[in-house]
């Protein structure tokens, strides 16, 4: 629903003839992003690329607080298509850091969603799997007096997330764990695995 919400927002802006650009692809679909561009809502890569007097559409993956600040400083209006599930994670990690907790994100470092989540903190830690998390947890340099708050990329998998939860619970007594994997994503992953188990080949 977060993807549909984002696309609907851009479609509405195009239908109303609003002067707007997508700040990064609004969703992971090059064909659709190109089609939206042909409707009058092109895609730009950086805040500096947003023309004066033009609204910036924040993509479904979200952006860091610094991007909102930069847009505000330039007087650029914002149409926020951030998935509500992702925005919820932003609030969790930002709040955790204000409380003096260490924000830990489980996800792919290069993914725009993960980059945006991390950008809501001054000192986030991102781990792609349980092995990386365990290496940090076991490190003698880690300050064990700092409590940990852990979240997940919304499109991660149970196979990645569950071992991370197990490792954190073993080594941290004052941890906060937020299962932020999108329900729709988990459902589709489970269904794909079920179908694959019955097929000789699957695309």
Description:
By secondary structure, this protein is of the alpha/beta class. The chain is about 45% helix and about 15% strand. The chain has helices spanning about 1-15, 30-40, 65-75, 85-100, 110-120, 130-140, 160-170, 185-195; strands at about 20-25, 45, 55-60, 80, 100-105, 125, 150, 175. Strands 2-1-3-4 form a 4-stranded parallel beta sheet, sandwiched between helices. It has a 4-stranded parallel beta sheet with strand order 6-5-7-8, sandwiched between helices. Helix 3 (about 65-75) links the parallel strand 3 and strand 4 (about 80). Helix 4 (about 85-100) runs parallel beside helix 5. The chain is flat. The two termini are about 25 Å apart. The relative contact order is 0.11. The model has no long low-confidence stretch (mean pLDDT about 95).
Would you tell me the overall average pLDDT?
Answer: 95
Q: Please give the share of residues in helix.
A: 40-55%
The succession of helices and strands, N to C, reads HEHEEHEHEHEHEHEH
Topology, number of strands: 8
Which class do the helix and strand fractions yield?
A: alpha/beta
Side by side, the strands of the main sheet go: 2-1-3-4
Low confidence ranges: none
Main sheet overview = 4 strands, parallel
Mass-distribution shape:
flat
Distance linking N and C termini = 24 Å
Q: How many DSSP H or I helices?
A: 8
Specify Rg, calculated over alpha carbons. 19 Å
| Strand portion | 5-15%
Core attributes:
alpha/beta; 8 helices; 4-stranded parallel β-sheet; 203 residues; 8 strands
């Amino acid at each position: 629903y977060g993807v549909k919400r984002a696309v609907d927002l851009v479609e509405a802006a195009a239908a109303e003839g609003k002067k707007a650009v997508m700040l990064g692809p609004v969703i992971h679909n090059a064909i659709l992003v190109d089609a939206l561009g042909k409707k009058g809502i092109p895609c730009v890569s950086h805040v500096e690329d947003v023309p004066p007097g033009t609204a910036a559409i924040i993509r479904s993956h979200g952006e860091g607080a610094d991007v909102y600040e930069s847009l505000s400083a330039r007087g650029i209006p914002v149409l926020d298509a951030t998935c509500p599930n992702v925005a919820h994670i932003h609030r969790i990690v930002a709040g955790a850091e204000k409380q003096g907790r260490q924000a830990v994100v489980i996800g792919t470092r290069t993914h725009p969603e993960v980059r945006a989540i991390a950008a809501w903190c001054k000192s986030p830690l991102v781990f792609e799997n349980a092995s990386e998390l365990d290496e940090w947890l076991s490190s003698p340099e880690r300050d064990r007096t700092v409590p940990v708050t852990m979240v997940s990329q919304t499109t991660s998998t149970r196979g990645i997330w569950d071992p991370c939860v197990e490792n954190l619970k073993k080594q941290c007594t004052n941890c906060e764990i937020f299962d932020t994997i999108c329900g729709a994503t988990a459902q589709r992953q489970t269904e794909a695995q079920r179908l694959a188990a019955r097929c000789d080949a699957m695309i």
